[in-house]
Design brief:
- The protein is α/β, with parallel strands linked by helices.
- The protein has a domain at 114-266: Rossmann fold (3-Layer(aba) Sandwich), CATH 3.40.50.
- 31% of the residues lie in helices and 24% in strands.
- The chain has helices spanning 2-7, 16-37, 39-47, 52-55, 70-73, 106-122, 147-154, 179-189, 202-214, 243-254, 359-368, and strands spanning 68-69, 87-90, 101-104, 131-138, 161-171, 174-177, 196-200, 226-230, 261-267, 270-275, 282-283, 289-293, 307-312, 323-333, 344-350.
- A 7-stranded mixed beta sheet has the order 6-5-4-7-8-9-10, with helices on both faces. Strands 1, 11, 12, 13, 14 and 15 form a 6-stranded mixed beta sheet that branches. Strands 2-3 form a two-stranded antiparallel sheet.
- Helix 9 links the parallel strand 7 (196-200) and strand 8 (226-230).
- Helix 2 (16-37) packs across helix 3 (39-47) and helix 9 (202-214) crosses helix 10.
- The chain is globular and about 65 Å long.
- It starts with a helix and ends with a helix.
């Protein structure tokens, strides 16, 4: 994976013009490898009469690569690994038929590490100051291979973590929610000097902030504290509030302004780290390309049009994740006020496929209990 490894070592993470040729070479390299080492992926391309050397000649041809819907990966495991993988992670879900199961090898982990450290450095997430973490999600457990749990834990290494408190603990063989514990910790930590970082779904974070406000609990977290968000609003889309309202509530309840609120976007089927800029837009890094497709025809749409989000990256050689079709609706924009060139993605919501049950839904059931 010569070109792919080169791509993930580049430092100028949003300069698409500079690395467009390298990105294309990496995509073609990835497609050829997957075609040769994954019989199921070979069949997908052959059934679509897609010939990599014939049909993939320039970056403009990337949209022609047959995509794999995330729903398909939730029903079929595709891998190039013949024996036990280094690590296997799953997407969100409450049963095996609702989860994607993805194998990753050492090559992927090295590329993912290079990407993460570049992105975190660009967005000033690294810190040497000891930090307390509050995670609005699941506590890691060997019986829980969900990617969202692993990524939330990984986010606690951007700064040295001296404590990690989880909203959903693993107790006596099952997960249980305890939001009161987080509220008590926030009150306690606000009296100290060490920064606090929260990590979790935007919906859960909003509900916690709203509950604290309703109960008259308001604190001011120490300087350097951050609110980190990931995973989107999922089935809470109807309760979604605009970002300005969210930021206002965060500053009112925790004393954290919007400059210290950072949101991530990604998926186990597309393990690229998208991090919002100071204008809170998800810029597309050099490691990926996004195509917005018409909901009816699946043809690529021009910038500014809403459609299905097709995510493209060469990061994985262990699973055919080169072109993934999500069930999310989005739109691409450019000319962000932050000054960064290139496109950024606005996520509108999901198309409402009832068959997909996310871990957020599973957590919602526990919250109701």
């Amino acid at each position: 994976m010569l070109y792919t490894n080169k791509l993930f070592r580049k430092r100028d993470i949003y300069n698409h013009l500079k690395y467009e040729a390298l990105f294309f070479k990496a995509i073609k390299e990835n497609c050829l490898y997957l075609y040769k080492h994954c019989a199921e992926y070979k069949k997908i391309l052959d059934d679509k009469y897609f010939n990599i050397n014939r049909d993939l000649k320039s970056v403009d041809d990337i949209s022609k690569i047959p995509f794999i819907p995330t729903l398909y990966l939730k029903r079929h495991k595709l891998t190039t690994i013949k024996h036990k993988s280094l690590i296997t992670v799953t997407s969100s879900g409450t049963s095996s038929r609702n989860k994607s199961e993805i194998d990753f090898n050492l090559g992927f982990l090295l590329r993912a590490w290079n990407m993460t450290r570049r992105v975190a450095k660009y967005h000033k997430l690294w810190s040497i100051k000891p930090t307390r973490y509050l995670i609005l999600g699941y506590k890691p457990n060997k019986k829980n291979p969900a990617a969202v749990t692993k990524t939330a834990f990984a986010a606690t290494f951007f700064a040295p973590g001296i404590s990690r408190t989880y909203a959903i603990d693993y107790v006596n063989g099952e997960y249980k929610v305890d939001l009161d514990k987080l509220k008590n910790k926030l009150v306690k930590f606000a009296k100290g000097r060490l920064p606090v970082r929260t990590m979790g779904f935007p919906a859960y974070t909003y509900f916690l902030l709203k509950q604290m406000k309703d109960e008259g609990i308001k604190v001011k977290l120490p300087k350097g504290s951050k609110i980190m968000l990931g995973g989107g609003w999922k089935q809470f889309y109807a309760e979604k509030v605009d970002k300005e309202e969210f930021y206002k509530l965060a500053e009112e309840v925790l004393g954290v302004n919007d400059k210290n609120i950072v949101e991530f976007f990604g998926a186990v089927e597309h393990p690229i780290l998208y991090t919002d800029c100071r204008e809170h837009h998800f810029h597309v890094p050099i490691y990926s390309k996004i195509i917005i497709r018409d909901v009816s025809t699946l043809e690529p749409l021009e910038e500014g049009k809403i459609g299905l989000i097709n995510l493209i990256t060469p990061i994985a050689s262990s699973s055919p994740l080169v072109s993934i079709m999500t069930d999310d609706l989005g739109v691409l924009h450019s000319s962000c006020k932050c000054g960064e060139k290139g496109q950024y993605l606005e996520i509108i919501g999901r198309v409402g496929i009832k068959d997909i049950v996310t871990c957020a839904q599973g957590a919602e059931e526990m919250l109701k209990q």
